[in-house]
Design brief:
2 copies of one chain form a homodimer. Chain A is mainly alpha-helical and about 150 residues long. The first copy, chain A, is built from 6 helices and 2 strands; from the N terminus they run ααααββαα. The first copy, chain A, has a two-stranded antiparallel ribbon with strand order 1-2. The model of chain A has no long low-confidence stretch (mean pLDDT about 90). At the A-B interface, α1, α5 and α6 of A face α1, α5 and α6 of B. Chain A binds a DNA duplex (30 and 30 nucleotides) through α3 and α4.
Chain lengths: ~150, ~150
DNA sequence: TGATTATACTTGACTGAGTCAAGTAATTGT
DNA sequence: ACAATTACTTGACTCAGTCAAGTATAATCA
């Protein structure tokens, strides 16, 4: 079986899609938050009141780095941090009202850039695009190695 | 037209594919070269004897950063640099034999990691995967904005 | 021609993301 | 109670990448 052409094709797609992702990231970066910060904010938003440890387990991020990002958010009053009564080593993290606004802004920037990506596509084409994406995900998303 | 679900789907795919690219990059990074270095080496290899300026135009890379990467390669004897006789501001860059070996090694690492990606797919599935990738590229790869 | 402007590359100084390891305090297990 | 583990913090650091000034050469044009 000759997969060498497949390798070239996949690498070409990877180069192409790296550029797509890069462009989309640029728009989010304009918000003033780094990608790491945006991811952390998303996790705090999504996982309700949670501990730093929970975020660490989801994201692939250094413990110290995360600690600094969170405390930076606390200083900017985007995240509220209260010591857990049941385990005083941990803190409950959640977005403040201001944090939710910041998150919504990030969310909206991300959505806008995706919309831009689709702007020259018909509804039919958008449907096709998403079906192709689903198919790729299904093909490549196998379990951690059995 | 409701594109809000499409936005969510595309973002989900982006998160997924970011991870795929991250994993593939890891294997190349194990070579000891940074991604920037690998890209520069590729350009020197691909564009025969060329000037730093040519690489700058292809890659999106800082002039000073590129200069350092190239001189680092020269110091490691991976790249040969000779002053252009027709324009003494420029230098002709090309890979040395050692540089070609380093490049082949990088190339082989990249190919291996792609093979790993395909390892659990049938030939049929690999064909499908590539068709989906082509389709996505065609849908999204429009001219710079008319 | 000679003066100005532009180009190719270099270099030093810097920023900021991310890493590492040691330290503190609280918890768990024996 | 004591040892080992866990959650978070902090300081010191590395390294990728940026910025701007500097040098040498080439192109432009009055």
């Amino acid at each position: 079986m000759d997969r060498s052409q497949a390798i070239l094709d996949i690498r070409a797609f990877n180069r192409f899609y790296t550029n797509v992702l890069f462009l989309l990231d640029q728009s989010v970066l304009k918000s003033g938050y780094s990608l790491a910060e945006a991811r952390v904010m998303y996790e705090v938003k999504a996982n309700g009141p949670c501990a730093a440890r929970d975020i660490m387990n989801r994201l692939n991020i250094d413990e110290g780095y995360l600690s600094r990002i969170l405390n930076h958010f606390v200083a900017k009053e985007l995240v509220l941090k209260t010591q857990s009564p049941t385990d005083k080593r941990q803190y409950h993290l959640r977005l403040s009202a201001r944090g939710r606004r910041a998150y919504d802004m990030l969310e909206s920037l991300a959505n806008q850039s995706i919309q831009g990506l689709m702007s020259h596509l018909s509804d039919q084409e958008v449907g096709d695009l998403i079906r192709h994406m689903h198919s790729i995900t299904e093909l490549l998303d196998h379990e951690p190695t059995e």
